[in-house]
Amino acid sequence: MNTKLTLNVDRQVISRAKKYAQEQRTSVSDLVENYLKKLTMEAPHQQKITPLVKGLSGIISLTEKFDEKTAYTHYLEEKYK
Questions:
Q1: Interatomic CA distance for residues 18 and 22, integer angstroms
Q2: How many CA atoms lie within 13 A of 78 on its CB side?
Q3: Would you say residue 18 lies in a domain?
């Protein structure tokens, strides 16, 4: 059963939403409904953290300046020399 909902949205946003909905061959109401469905869906399989991972969490402390991408790049460069 559908129920009417009143929203206050910026005029420009409504204009762009109407244009987008028209391009997608749907309505703004359907766009909002589908968005809210997706937003409020419960995650079907929330992964649980295993005891091993919990035990390892926080074991390494890094400085704020540590850049993991650079470190990984150096690791790969050394590995494939």
A1: 6
A2: 6
A3: yes
Angle between helices 11-23 and 28-40 (to 10 degrees): 100
Question: Does residue 1 lie within any of the structural domains?
Answer: no
Question: Domain for residue 21, yes or no?
Answer: yes
When comparing pLDDT for 46 and 14, which is higher?
A: 14
pTM for this prediction:
0.51
Query: CA–CA separation, 12 vs 14, rounded Å?
Result: 5
Q: Say what percent of the chain tops pLDDT 70.
A: 95
The domain total for the chain is 1
Quick count: other Cβ atoms within 10 Å of Cβ 31? 15
Residue 44 has what pLDDT? 66
Which residue segment(s) compose the domain that 26 sits in?
Answer: 11-40
